Structure formats: C-alpha cells, structure tokens
Amino acid sequence: MHPAAGQQMNQIERRKHKRFKAAQGAYAVLGPETSKLGQIKDISLGGLAFKYLADEARPNSAGELDIIIRQNSYCIRNIPIQTVSDVELARENAFSTIRLRQQGVQFGKLTSDQTSQLEFILKHHTSWIEEPS
Question: What is the tens place of the pLDDT at every residue in 40-92?
C-alpha cells in the first residue's frame, strides 16, 4: 500500500462520527469571555468546524460554545468543547484586509438534552458530506 494512502485512511478512521455540511445561517458562539461568533462549516455528533474573523484575541483551547440556527431561532447552549485545530484561511481576494481563521472543536460530555438537540440539528439543518475514497 502506498504510504500516503495509508495516512489518508488513518485520518478517515480516526473520525468516530460522520460529518455534515451545516446549513446557511448556522453559527457557533464562543463565550462568555470571548463572545466570538463564527459560521459553522461542518458538524457531527463529535464536534464542529467554524470560520471566524481573526483578530488579536484568540479563543481558549477549552470552554463552551452555543450553536445557533438563525432560520428558526434554534439554540443549543453551553456545549463543552476542546479545540483540536485553529488555522488561518487563505484570503479569497488578494486586496482584502479581512483575515479569517477556522477552528475545529471536539465536544466534551454532552447532556442527554444537548445530544437530542444536536441530533435534531443534524437531521434538519445539514446536508451530507462525501468522504474522500
């Protein structure tokens, strides 16, 4: 087997949950100390990735976030998280001064109510992401 193929397979195998593309209007709010708002890119039962405006204040690696679905004012509050990645995104326009970052977080221990709410969001406010083969 080619080494790169094995590495890609290991990355896929590490994911415990299927990822879904978040619907337009799905946001993550980190808080309460940073109150950063970001657009959710993808989400699963195990975590999510969101884009946010980069500034000097970086979010903590652990804490809580809220998930907000603007379409129907749906919200899941106080989800415990741990940051697993935080990278600067390439600028879409060379003349833009706006810097975006993407943060990936893993959910901590969810309550049964939070889990049910998250399953509702996955069912009604996402679309399937095909994994690379």
Answer: 999 999 999 999 988 766 667 789 999 999 987 899 999 999 999 999 998 87
Cβ-in-10-Å burial (0-12, 13-18, 19+) of 42 comes to middle
**Residue 31 lies inside a defined structural domain of this protein:** yes
CA distance 114 to 3: 39
Residue 14 counted as domain residue = no
Amino acid at 84: V
- The 3-state secondary structure of 86-108 reads EEECCCCCCCCCCCEEEEEEEEC
Please check whether residue 133 lies inside any domain of the structure: no
5 in a structural domain: no
Range of the domain at 107: 19-128
What does pTM read for this prediction? 0.80
CATH of the domain at 105: 2.40.10.220
H helical segments located in the chain = 3-14, 112-124
Q: How far apart are CA 49 and CA 87, in angstroms?
A: 11
d(C-alpha 43, C-alpha 28), whole Å: 11
